[in-house]
Amino acid sequence: MGLGLAALLFVLGASGCRRAPAPPSPEYEQATKRWSSLYAQKLDDAYLDPAIGEIEALLQRVPADSVDSAASQDLLRRIDEGRTRMMATAAEQQRAVESAQALPTTDPSQTGIAQPEALPQEAPVDAGLGDAGMSGPQVGTPASELVAGFQGCFQRGMPIDVQGRGMRDGWKLSDRTSCRLEYPSHVDTIVLIEDGRVLSLLPTSGMRTVKRYADGGLVPEDAGR
Which among 41, 37, 81, 74 is positioned nearest to 59, based on CA atoms? Predict the structure, then answer.
């Protein structure tokens, strides 16, 4: 009886000395919340994010006797493994980029790749020399230059009916002596305009005057003789 009572007292005494586990760790709770939010935003890139250092610091402050101690150590291990893996992947990608940049360029002329033939360039439109060369308007000269350029020596004349093209504006050299001396090649010449540019230079000697009736019909050349 005495021996049994002593054994019971020993068991009760031993159980009374056992320490209860520490309560949940607020550091672990905060660390897991921040880690979950960071990973949701950046996925595996979260392992290389600078904010991961603060999360690891919180996990390392979890007391060893806390109920969250084992879980905090497990999360620390997973973070470390993920960081190592992502750093290796980044290094491999960098090596691939450097290798691609180091490849020698290939001269297409030394390969069998067909090269496009050079297209012939269109001859530029002769816009004349304008005031600078004092040669007067030429084929292709913008009609706007006749208004303000060439020392004002060209003036709008009668519209010209060009066969096959219809009515076109005609300009002629002014009768001023200075203009006739400056642009002698344009004396007795009509500057014909089409689409905003000089279409042609027509000698007045090569033009034929045609009379029309009020209804648009042509008057015979021998009429009135």
Answer: 74
Contact 179, 164 (CB under 8 A): no
The pairing of beta strand 160-162 with beta strand 154-156: unpaired
Instruction: Report whether 173 contacts 187 (CB < 8 A).
Output: yes
H helices of the chain, in order, are 2-17, 26-42, 52-60, 69-101, 130-133, 144-148, 177-182
Q: 114 or 76: whose pLDDT is higher?
A: 76
User: In the predicted model, is pLDDT for residue 8 greater than 60?
Assistant: no
| Residue 72 near residue 79 (C-beta atoms within 8 A) | no
pTM: 0.36
Q: Which of 27, 35, 71, 36 is closest to 53 using CA atoms?
A: 35
Q: Which residue has the tokens 């020698």?
A: 104
pLDDT for 40-60, tens place per residue? 998 888 898 888 889 999 889
